[in-house]
Amino acid sequence: MVRPLRPLLVPERYVLRSRDASGTVTAVCRERPAAVQRQSATLLQSLRLGYAGFSGVMGSFHPELYVALTRNWRTAPDQAERLQNFLGLSSVLETQNYSLNAKYYLQLEGLPLLVNSRAKRGTVLSASQRLEVEQFRSISQEYAEAVIRSYDRQTKRNQ
Fold this sequence. Notes:
By secondary structure, the chain is an alpha+beta fold.
């Protein structure tokens, strides 16, 4: 079993709970920090260990799949395993010129972004890397449609 990376902690917040007639705060609740995973390959394992969600770079590519997994892993464990396998394999893309490839992906989605980076000044995506991102986008979209349809069917059966 691969051990998840150290979690990213969402800072603790103070939430106003009530005020009296004069507007003075009478109760404040301190919410505890929530641990979120930032590595795709161990997300499902981390959710099972009590992590609250996902905040990794691969969310730039197909956030709807991370939402589907974090919302449905308990109610559809078999589907969650298959989705985790796809997300884990997909995370290989983050090692290939991230953030340029993410910007290119988002450009394909219609966002008006330039594919450049301060950190990778002068680096460009090769024709092969662009093709890989295009193919990845196509398969991600197909997978997202299938997964979301599957979770919708599962939800209707459970109602």
